[in-house]
Amino acid sequence: MTDTHHPPHPHHPHHPQAQQAPQAPQAPARVPDVGVGVGVGGGRGPAAVVCGLGAYLPPRVITNDELAQHLGTSDEWIRSRTGIRRRHVIAPGSATSTLAVEAARRALKSARCERADAVIVATSTPDRPCPATAPEVASRLGLAGVAAFDLGAVCAGFVYALAAGAGLIGAGVATRVLVIGADTFSTICDPADRTTRAVFGDGAGAVVLRRGEHGEPGALGPFDLGSDGELADLITVPAGGSRQRAHGLPAPAADHYFAMQGKPVFMQAVLRMTESAQRVLDRAGWDVGEVDRFVGHQANARILTALGERLGLPEQRIVSNIDRVGNTAAASIPLALADGDLRAGHKVLLTSFGGGLAWGSTVLHWPDLTPH
Asked: Which one of 2, 73, 103, 311 is CB 3.0 to 4.6 Å from 56, fit for a cystine?
């Protein structure tokens, strides 16, 4: 790995603030009713039903011990702060589309179908800034000509993409939608920064949504979506967009890498996901005690623990694979679904949080399917 040297700044993870091990924020006295309710279960119109699930991780595995040799840290330091033991990264010559195509193929196989009417790729690491990655993914899947677009909501992207797919089905635009979450954060993390390089891994997961009926197994229930752009600088890649390019000046090397402010991100993630999850449970008419599996964004083991405590969910109902794959951004939730020992009939709660800031949640009764 290359070693780059640059001074830390308040919005960069080298800043001392990012090194702190924060405690979960206290629960608010009342959960404010903010966010957007979408696609309420039992509502009018067709439902979007999950009928296939696929997941893919690139073959190359990097352990904590391997990282520690380059980052001046240790396996114990990484595990104690993140809960991560290893992560997968793409090989030279691969790209986000490589992972997206393979996960999508597996999802289609799981759904026992070959085609979809639309392809949505949730990603913050597209193959190129322009054009979108989704049309190329569709073409490589033999789906040339279908609607295809990227969706950017960082680590909340997959839940947002589920809502978008459900919207296409509800509007009659499509009867079957392929929703993919794929990211390769190893390509945008500073190779010399232990606070981000140790956390993120690469991967992709996908589901097939079909037109169906509200109340049937796999039907997506209500959605809760929200954002707070005033806190956009908490999670960002400062350089490369129109804001930086319009200045006509080269950006500092550090600004081309992903950066996040650890302590406030931790606090916002716990707060926003707790609130969003509770709102969507209320809209679905579910009590938290009915939830069989809670699948939260796999950002950090401490965040998952805090979410369970805030929501009152026992540890055995919380799906976690972060120790084996790290934070895979938009791929996080579908990878966890494929790895979560879900059984037909389980009441499943999904919640996510990412840059933007953005967050989102939904629920479903798990269908009888075999992940690939």
From this structure: 103
pTM: 0.88
Phi, psi torsion values for 102, nearest 5 degrees: -65, -45
Which of the residues 51, 64, 88, 155 is marked catalytic? 155
Beta-bridge partners for 206: 54, 180
Which of 264, 249, 113 is closest to 178 using CA atoms? 113
C-alpha closest to that of 299 among 274, 338, 270, 277? 270
Q: What is the pLDDT along the chain (372 residues), one digit of tens a residue?
A: 333 333 344 333 333 333 334 444 444 433 334 445 544 344 578 999 999 999 999 999 999 999 998 888 999 999 999 999 999 999 999 999 999 999 999 999 999 999 999 999 999 999 999 999 999 999 999 999 999 999 999 999 999 999 999 999 999 999 999 999 999 999 999 999 988 999 999 999 999 999 999 999 999 999 999 999 999 999 999 999 999 999 989 999 998 999 999 899 999 999 999 999 999 999 999 999 999 999 999 999 999 999 999 999 999 999 999 999 999 999 999 999 999 889 999 999 999 999 999 999 999 999 999 999
Catalytic hit among 297, 300, 365, 372: 297
CA-closest candidate to residue 211, choices 66, 284, 131, 111? 111
Residue 155 among the catalytic residues: yes
The answer to whether 297 is a known catalytic residue is yes
Q: Annotated catalytic, 64? A: no
